[in-house]
Amino acid sequence: NIVITEKENLCLYGFPSEQWEVNLPAEEVPPELPEPALGINFARDGMQEKDWLSLVAVHSDSWLLSVAFYFGARFGFDKADRKRLFNMINDLPTVFEVVTGAAKKQTKEKSLVSNHSGSKSKSNSKVASFFLTTVSLYV
C-alpha cells in the first residue's frame, strides 16, 4: 500500500533492502549526482492510481539509468564497459515493466523458452534487488 501525504516535491527512494520510501528530497544531494524527479505527488491528482504508478516508474527508470551511466563515466568506463553495463541493465526488467506486470509476462515467455534449453531464470525481485544494491553501493 502506498500512503502519500500532501507534502510538496516528494521523491521515491529505493533501498538495497528492497524497501521503498516516498519522502521530501534530500536537502544536500551531492551536486554532481543526477537529480531524481521532483513532485511525483503533483501528477497523481486527477489520475488513476495505476497510471500514476506507471508514471512514477518511468521516472524511476530514467533516474536509475542516469545514475548508472553517471558512475560509468565517473569510473572511466570505455566503450566496451559501457556496452557491458547497457547489456546488464537490459537483462533486467525495468521498474515500469515490474509495476505494469509486463515483466511477469516476459518472464513466463522466457521460462518457456529456457525450459527447452535447460537454463534457469532468476526471479524478477532478486534480479531487481541486485541492480538496486549495485547502484546504491556507489551512491
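That was protein one. Protein two is written in the same sequence-then-structure order:
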Amino acid sequence: MIETQSGRKIKTLRSDNGGEYKSDPFLKVCQDEGIVRHFTVRETPQQNGVAERMNRTLLEKVRCMLSNAGLGKAFWAEAITYASHLINRLPAAANEGKTPMEVWSGKPCTDYKYLHIFGCPAYYHVRESKLDPRAKKALFMGFSTGVKGYRLWCPDEKKIVVSRDVTFDEAAMVNQNKHEGEIEATKTMSSSKQVELLKTPVVPVRSDTTDTSPTVDSDEEDEDDEEEAPTQEPPQQQDSIAIRRSRREIRKPVRFTDIVAYALPVIEDDIPSAYKEAVRSSESVEWKKSMDEEMKSLHKNETWELVQLPKGKKAIGCKWVYAKKMESLGKDNVRFKARLVAKGYAQKEGIDYNEVFSPVVKHSSIRILLALVAQFDLELAQLDVKTAFLHGDLEEEIYMSQPEGFKVAGKENWVCKLQKSLYGLKQSPRQWYKRFDRFMIGQKYTRSHYDHCVYFRKLQDGTFIYLLLYVDDMLIACKSKVEIERLKTQLSNEFEMKDLGEARKILGMEIERDRAKGKISLCQKQYLKKVLQRFGMNENSKPVSTPLAPHFKLSASMSPKTGEESHYMAQIPYASAVGSLMYAMVCTRPDISQAVSIVSRYMHNPGKGHWQAVKWILRYILGTVDVGLLFQHDKVTGQCVVGYVDSDYAGDLDKRRSTTGFVFTIAGGPVSWRSILQSTVALSTTEAEYMA
C-alpha cells in the first residue's frame, strides 16, 4: 500500500518481537521484497521509541473515550481505531502545524463536521414494515474503511452495523455528564465534613455518621451467620454494554494508605513532622539528642564533605524524619529516633542515579531456614545493621543541602558532596546490597541462585552456616555457636552491628521455639490484632470458622451500579483491608490464600457484596488470630519436601477459569503456597487438575 500510494520503497522495518512480525509468512514477504528487518531487544521499548510513544498516546485516548462513553473493555478495538482516525487529522508541531493526512496526501483537512463523540447515541435508518419505527437506537463507534458510512453498535441486535443515514444526539451525552457532575458535587459538599481520611497503619477508622462508616461492624449489613447464611446468587447482567456509572468524588490522593509495611511497633502520638516542630515540642531534649546521635553516626561514616556547589550542578534537599519506637515487645521504654533523609524524589534518572533495584530475602527462604533449624536443632541468631544505607558507596556525583539545624558556621551556603549513600536516595538500597554482597563473597560464602539474599558456607565438619538478609535485618543459623560468633565478629569489624541475640521477631512475624520438643512456630498475633482493631473488629464481633463461606458467589457484576452505591463504596477502606490481609497471607497464613485471592480481583471497583466477603475473612481471622505455622523435628519425613496440589473447576464466575492451589512443606510446616487463576479455560475437571 505504501509503495502504491507514495511511490516510495520500504527499505527497513523495525518492530518488537511480536509473533505477527516474526512469523514465517511475514518474514518471507519481507525477504522477497528486499526489506531489511530490525528487531528491538526484549523489554527495551526505547529502541523503537516513536512507535511505542504513539501506542501510549493511543491508549490514553482510548481510556478516556471508553470512560466517557461508559463502555467496557470489549470496545477497545473500536475506540483505538477511532482514536487513530482522529490523530491522523489533528495538527502536529512535528509536522509544522500540518496534519499527518496532509503530509501523506498533500491535501489539507478542512472539513471536520463529520466527526462525532465516540459512544454518543445515534439513530440509523431501517427499512421495516409500514408500522415499524423508521430508526433504531445505537452508539457511534467510528468509520468503516473503504465505505462511506458510520460504524454503529446496536445493543438490541448486539452487533456492529454500517449505515449512511444516521442522526446523532451528542447533546444527550453532554447533558447526562453535566447532570451527573452536579449530583456528585452536591453529594461531595454534603458529606465532605463527615468523612475522615484513613490513618495508616494501625489507627482504627472512625466516622461521625453511621451510614458512611468504613469500620467493620458485625451488625452493619452483616447478617451473614455461619449456620443460617442465605445463598447469594450474583445479579445477572442486563446488557452486554457496561452501565455508565457516576464518577466518584474527586479528592487528593491519600498516598501509601494501602501499603502494609510492618516491622516494628511505632507510637504515632505527638510525632513532629519537621525540625522546627521537634525543637519546640515538650520533648525537644530527646529529639535533639537523637539528632545529635544521627549526625555523629554520619560524620563517623564520612558520609559527605562540605564543598561549594560547582557551576551547573544542582543540590537536592534533605529533611529530618522522626519516630518513637519500643525497644521490644512487652517493654514500656521508648526510643526516640531521628533520621536524616535525602529528598530523592528530586533526583533525575541517568544523572543522579541509574540502577535502583535491590533484592530482599524471600519469605519462603525465611520459612525454609526455620524448618531446617527445627529439623537439625540449629542455633538461630539475629543481628541488625545500624544505618545500613550509609555503608553503600556512591557511584554518581550528588550534592545535597546541609541539614537543618546543623549548618556549619561561616559555610552556610556550602553543600554536602555525598561520598556514601544516604537514606532517601533512590540508589541507596542497591548500593548497600552491593557492598554487603561483596563482603560476603570475600568471606568465602556462596550466594544462592534461588534467592540472592541467602548466603551459605560449608564447614569442615560437613555442616552449613546460613545467613539471610532483609535490608538491614539478618538471621544466622548454624549447628556451631563458635561459627556464629566468628561471623558476628567479621560483620562487626566491617559494619556497625547490633546483636539482638536469639531470633524472636522478623518482619513483624513472631518466632517462638520449644527446643526440648524440637518445635518452632511462626505467627503474626500482634500484627493481626492491630489489623482487627483498625477495621473495627472487637469482642462484639462474631467469629466464623471458614475463610470464605460457600454462599459467597463473587463476580464483577456485583460492582456498584448506581451513583449512591459508588459513593458509599468510595468511603470503604476496601483496598487497605485486602492489602492488610494479603500481607498476613504472604507471611504466615496459607489458610486464607484462596479467599484473599478472590476478593483481591475486585479492588479496582468493589461493591457491597465484595465488602461483605472481606468482613467475613476478618471475622475468620478474629477467631484464629493465634494460628500460625509450626515446624517440628521428624526423623522419618522431616528432611523431605512434601507437596500438595489441587484445583477447582470453572470457579471464577467472570471468565470461568479454574483455580490452582498448592502447598509445599518441610519439617511438617508450610514453606511455599499459592492460590492463582489458571491462564486458560479448562474444558473438564481432568484438564483443570492436569494444568494445576
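The mean pLDDT is 82. Keep this in mind for the problem set.
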